[in-house]
Structure formats: C-alpha cells, structure tokens
Amino acid sequence: MSQADFQTLLAFFKALSNESRLKLVGLLAQSDRSVEELAALLHLKEPTVSHHLAKLKALDLVEMRSQGNTHLYRLNQEALHSLSKAVLISNHAELVADLDGDAWEEKVLRNYVEAGRLREIPASRKKRWVILKWLVQQFECDRTYSEVELNQHLKQFHPDVATLRREFIGYQMMQRQQGNYWRLPEAQWRREPNQQVS
C-alpha cells in the first residue's frame, strides 16, 4: 500500500469517526439535502454542517449540485463503496510494516532476563512464549539432548527445569521420545500450549 493510499484511508476513518459526519452520511444516503435542511435535522448550526460537509467533500464522499439558488448535497455512493472496498482488501500487515515488530519481545526479554539468566518464568502466556522462544534458541538444531543434558543446560538459565521442559513440549518447540529431546523447526511451534502435556 502506498503512502498516499494509507493517508486516504486514514482520512476516511477520521472523517467517519465523527458522530455528526456519520449522521450526515446516513441522511445523504436517503436523499439529496440542503445545508439548511441538514442543520434542522441534526440540530446543528449551518456553518457547522458546512464544515462537516467540506470534510466529506474533500474525500469525494459528498457531491454538490445547484437547484436554483439552493445547493443540494448528495452522497457519492460510488466513492464510499470504493473506499470501503479498499479498506477490506488492503493488506493490513502493510499498514504496520514500518513498526518494529521485535520491540515488544525485546522489552519482555529486558524485563525477565538479567546477565543471561531468567529472573522468573512469566505468568502471562504471551510473555512466557517470548521467553521460551529465546530459551529454545539456546539449543542447537539437529542435535538430540538427553534429559540430563537438557537439565544441565537449562539450569544455566533457571532452576525450574521441569517446568521449562514441559513448556517446550507443550508449545511444540521440542520433541521428546524415550528420554531424549530435540528442537523442532520454528514453523511447527504453537502459540498456545498443548494442555495435555504431562
């Protein structure tokens, strides 16, 4: 999505986030109306209505036509439909592409890890997932660890190795078979733990 398209969508949302403008759109969807008529229906002053109409006109949501000395406004349904469609089909991931997706995870790590050791295992599942992701990356891929080796390695980070082992299995970050553990590819990890893990 281009910056111009993003700004148009932003202006669209801002315009329709105002209660009076939203009501104006509803009234104009029913029929063409003058500023005087709209002001009476909405219990607003005419200059206020004109201000709101100008905001909608800037987005091409409202069109004006003259009828004698009266200016009548109508909703440009085609423009409204086009903008609504753009909202629905836009790649929302692109809207946040400029944000640092790792910033929150880095904050969690700063709060829970000190001098390479885990202060505590977070109670929050979302934070725990970040910690487990960091911890499991301390293990080599394509290597099998015995439970003794795994425990020794985990003790460098936190004394509650049983919980950490169980969580690795629950989030499918590691596989266990006959007392041996190995790290699974990140594509197989779960965001929510398997509750049946013992």
Automatic annotation (TrEMBL):
Keyword DNA-binding assigned to the entry: answer is yes
Instruction: State one molecular function term (GO).
Output: DNA binding
The cross-references to Pfam families, in alphabetical order and at most eight, read:
DUF2087, HTH_5
- InterPro entries on file: ArsR-like_HTH (IPR011991), DUF2087 (IPR018656), HTH_ArsR_DNA-bd_dom (IPR001845), HTH_MetalResp_TranReg (IPR051081), WH-like_DNA-bd_sf (IPR036388), WH_DNA-bd_sf (IPR036390)
Domain HTH arsR-type: start-end pairs: 1-97
List keywords of the entry alphabetically. Answer: DNA-binding, Transcription, Transcription regulation
Is DNA-binding tagged as a keyword? yes
Q: Which PANTHER family match?
A: TRANSCRIPTIONAL REGULATOR, ARSR FAMILY (PTHR33154), TRANSCRIPTIONAL REPRESSOR SDPR (PTHR33154:SF33)
Name the UniProt record assigns to this protein: ArsR family transcriptional regulator
Taxonomy, top ranks, is: Bacteria, Bacillati, Cyanobacteriota, Cyanophyceae, Nodosilineales
